């Protein structure tokens, strides 16, 4: 099977391989985490993604990209999928996939939108919706590493849409140097001082990291969200070379 080197010394395998569904855990009403067993999994970096391919009984195939949500545990990997209305692949993964099913995966993919535990520079994570998935992988990869300051701004419609709740709540109080802010776009919980609305420059100033701290910025989510945030960060003086983006636009043919 062909291999190619990626930064960090890990290898990318280019072929498809079987992945057995071990578990499906609901995260919200419309998002689930899938644990997959991929025999011979080579390991991956936080921020990388895989391609998942489904094959119907009549041979029809559909493939989509999904970020890896956590560090690998041997051959076990995790993805978290937000259902897209009428989506061909996400609906099956969120609602129907069950232990014993087999899909195919390819990867890990990506060498730029990655964080490595040896990176000691402060980190600013900005996620919109399911864009929190690779950012959570970075937060989880930070466990046991030197406590690099991490700041997460997580833009989400309502409190019920928060993926990884209550793990994020727990980490917000227990993980040294990790600061988490939820930015609600539609409905804020009672007592929230920030009115519901889309992310603004003021949010990045109030809850983000100042540009003179020179953080590495990771921005992930729907394409318009990512472009807005990247532009705001540049306007606020962040060095464009320190802004890494991942767009969760439609994938597949
Ligand atoms: C690098 C990368 C990583 C990704 N990681 C994740 C992840 O970790 N979790 C996750 O839930 N998704 C992730 N995505 C999005 C994912 O690949 C699919 O696009 C998404 O699951 C929809 O696929 P579908 O087959 O259900 O919808 P489709 O059948 O492809 O599309 C149905 C309808 O929804 C629209 N649509 C498709 N995708 C999106 C989208 N992302 N946002 C809004 N509208 C859309 C289409 O234009 C179409 O009208 C990632 C995308 C990329 C490029």
What is the structure about, briefly put?
Helices cover 18% and strands 35% of the residues. The chain is α/β, with parallel strands linked by helices.
Please give a structural write-up.
This protein has 253 residues and is an alpha/beta fold. The chain is built from five helices and twelve strands. 18% of the residues lie in helices and 35% in strands. Strands 1, 2, 3, 4, 5, 6 and 7 form a seven-stranded antiparallel sheet that branches. Strands 10-9-8-11-12 form a five-stranded parallel sheet, sandwiched between helices. Strand 1 (3-5) and strand 2 (11-28) form a beta hairpin. The longest helix is centred in the last third of the chain and has 13 residues, at 223-235. The chain starts with a strand and ends in a 6-residue tail after the last strand. It binds flavin-adenine dinucleotide. Flavin-adenine dinucleotide is lined by residues 49, 64-67, 79-82, 84, 86-91, 130, 133, 222, 246, 248-252.
